[in-house]
Amino acid sequence: MKKLLTGAGALLLLTGILVGIPAALVALAGNPFPTAQQWHAIVTLTPDYGNVIMFTKILPLVIWVLWAAFAIPFLVELVAAMGGRKTTKKVAVFRGQQKLAAGLIAAVAVMFAGGAGALAAPAPASADSYSVGTVDASASPLDLSSAMASVQAAQTPPAAPEQQQVVHQVVDGDTLWDLAVQYYGQGERFVEIFNANLGVQPDGQSLTDPDLILPGWQLSIPGVYTQAPVEEASAPTTPAPTPDESVQAPSTDAPVLDGAEGGAGRGAGGGAGAGEATDVRGMGESIDRPVVEQAPAVDDASETADEADIAIPLMTAGGIAGLLVAGLLGALGARRLRQRRKRVKGERIALPEPEVADLELEMRMVENPIGVTDVDNALRTLQAWAEDNGEQLPELLAVRVADDEVALYLAAPADLPEPFESMHEDRTAWIVRPGRAQAPDRPTVSPYPALATIGTDAQGGYVLLDLEQIGSLNVTGDEEIARGMLNALACEFATNPWSDEIQVTLVGLDDALARDLDRIRIHQVADIPALVRNLRADLDDRRDALDSYGVGGVLEARSRATDIETWAPHIVILAETPIGSLRDDLADLVARMPRLGIATIAQGTALAAGATVEVTSKEDAEYRSGGALPPLPFRPQILAGEELELVRSLFATTDREAQPVDLEQEHAHAAAEAEPAETTTELIDVTTAEDELEPAAEATEVAAVPAAPEPVATAAVEIPEAAPVSVVDERADEEPADIDVPSVEVPDWPAPYIRLLGPVDALNVDMDAIPGRGIEFLAFLLLQNTPSVPGALVQKKLWPDTFSKDNNNARQLAKQLRRILGHDPFGQPLLPEGRSSAGFTIHDQIRTDWHDFCDLIGPDLSTTPNENLIRAIRLVRGQPFDGLKRRGAWWAWRGPIEETMRAAILDAADELTHRALATGKFDDARLAARIAQSADRLNEAGWRLEIETAMAAGDVDAFNTIVGAMFEVVGVDAEIDDATQQLLDDAHEKLPGLAAR
Question: Could you tell me whether strands 570-574 and 503-507 are parallel, antiparallel, or unpaired per DSSP bridges?
Answer without folding.
Answer: parallel
